[in-house]
Amino acid sequence: MAAIDGLPPLREVIARHGLAARKALGQNFLLDLNLTAKIARSAGDLAHCDVLEVGPGPGGLTRALLAEGARHVLAVEKDERCLPALAEIASAWPGRLEVVHGDALEVDAAARLTPPIRVVANLPYNVGTELLTGWLTPPRWPPFWQSLTLMFQKEVAERIVARPGTKAYGRLAILAQWRCEARIVMVLPPEAFTPAPKVHSAVVQLTALPAPRFPADAKVLSRIVAAGFNQRRKMLRASLRGVAPEIEAKLVAAGIAPTARAEEVSLEAFCTLARIVAAD
Q: CATH assignment of 218-279?
């Protein structure tokens, strides 16, 4: 890829700009440009899309997104040390990369992008789940993005795609799978990163559905799922007691055994229960 953009290897960029990864910022840099290219390709055809990237660091994935043909890339970076390296990439790809120095939790990225929009990022570990939750819970659906192609710790990725009856199944699975198709597209070992984290990482792709998979009020569903999984060892008749009156009867009406635990209940059944509770 260096031959395409005329830029030096990432290790040289990091050394020249003094970009040692900072644990406080959740940074783990992916330096292999073959891997960053593979991640960019897994996001699909980017030629007619704007792309949001969060936490580009020295710009390995940024370069891959541009080389794979992204129409426009908005890179949101909190670490000001990385800005000169990203500016060099912007110069190599005139007019196609916009770098914003700021906190991705606070930047209104949608206002700076033109649909169709895809999000592709090696997310900082310390804010990854919070960012995902925000993207999955907009005021209106469909969201501003078509798809999310995101790097997480493997354990978090497994929670996103988990099925009922497994230990990983919980609120994150319900949240993601209610409105998206979710799948793991790549697993990376610790040694792929600098510094090497203690765990494997995985890339998850979430494709927005036109409408939620099953009808339900988002706030009611969220309240039920939170109550159920906050006390996941308890039977639902106990953990959901504070959610609605006569909860046992509502569970039965939804086809859920009152003695069941949250991890045993399907997404569809949770949505059915949410509709019953909302109708009361």
A: 1.10.8.100
Helices 60-67/33-42 angle, 10° precision: 50
pLDDT score of 2: 44
In single-letter form, the type of residue at position 36 comes to T
Structure tokens, 223? 């309240």
Strands (E), the chain: 29-30, 50-54, 72-77, 97-101, 117-122, 147-153, 180-188, 193-194, 201-208
Residue 69 confidence (pLDDT) above 70: yes
- Tell me if 64 sits within 8 A of 2, measured CB to CB: no
- Domain extents for the chain? 2-208, 218-279
83-121 tens-digit pLDDT: 999 999 999 999 999 999 999 999 999 999 999 999 999
Domains 2-208 and 218-279 share a fold: no
If one looks up domain 2-208 in CATH, what number appears?
A: 3.40.50.150
Q: What angle do CA 219, 182, 229 make, to 5 degrees?
A: 45
Coil/strand/helix, residue 265: coil
What is the per-residue DSSP string for 19-60? ----GGGT--EE--HHHHHHHHHHT---TT-EEEEE--TTSH
pLDDT at site 4: 57
